[in-house]
């Protein structure tokens, strides 16, 4: 595993770890967004759990490289859903989906590498 892949993997793991914590701890900003999306709160736990699985997979990929592919596919699917939620469900301005877009690009880049 080369250095660029390792650094990008760690960035993804860190960003999704923050997202997991915000969802599980019910941060006010996350609750507000979830309300705007119109999703039930239990679905936030499902998404946070899937993100946590992805984070664990990314960390595991340092010892089991094939797991990174799974994590990147999972993250890409989650970020497509996040972009949809921001732009179509909540009708946010596109700037609100930038973070999800960057994470999607990073996931796809890792998948391609």
Please describe what this structure looks like.
With 113 residues, the protein is mainly alpha-helical. It has helices at residues 3-24, 28-37, 41-60, 67-89, 98-112. Helix 1 (3-24) runs antiparallel to helix 3 and helix 1 packs antiparallel against helix 5. Helices cover 80% and strands 0% of the residues. The protein is built from 5 helices and no strands. The radius of gyration is 14 Å and the shape is globular. The mean pLDDT is 94.
Largest sheet at a glance?
none
Radius of gyration: 14 Å
Tell the overall outline. Answer: globular
- Portion of residues in helices? over 70%
User: H/E order of the elements?
Assistant: HHHHH
Q: How many DSSP-defined strands? A: 0
Helix-strand category = mainly alpha
Mean pLDDT: 94
Distance between the termini: 10 Å
Helix tally equals 5
In the predicted model, the low-confidence regions spanning at least 5 consecutive residues are none
Q: In what range is the share of β-strand residues?
A: under 5%
Write the layout of secondary structure elements.
Layout: H1 3-24, H2 28-37, H3 41-60, H4 67-89, H5 98-112
Helix pairs in contact: 1-3, 1-5, 3-4, 4-5
């Amino acid at each position: 595993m080369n250095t660029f892949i390792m650094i990008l993997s760690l960035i993804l793991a860190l960003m999704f770890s923050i997202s997991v914590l915000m969802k599980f701890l019910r941060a006010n900003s996350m609750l507000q967004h979830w309300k705007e999306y119109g999703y039930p709160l239990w679905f936030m736990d499902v998404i946070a759990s899937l993100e946590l699985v992805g984070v664990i997979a990314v960390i595991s990929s340092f010892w089991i490289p094939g797991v990174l592919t799974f994590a990147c596919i999972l993250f890409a699917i989650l970020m497509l859903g996040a972009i949809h939620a921001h732009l179509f469900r909540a009708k946010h301005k596109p700037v609100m989906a930038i973070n999800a877009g960057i994470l999607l690009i990073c996931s796809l880049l890792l998948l391609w590498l």
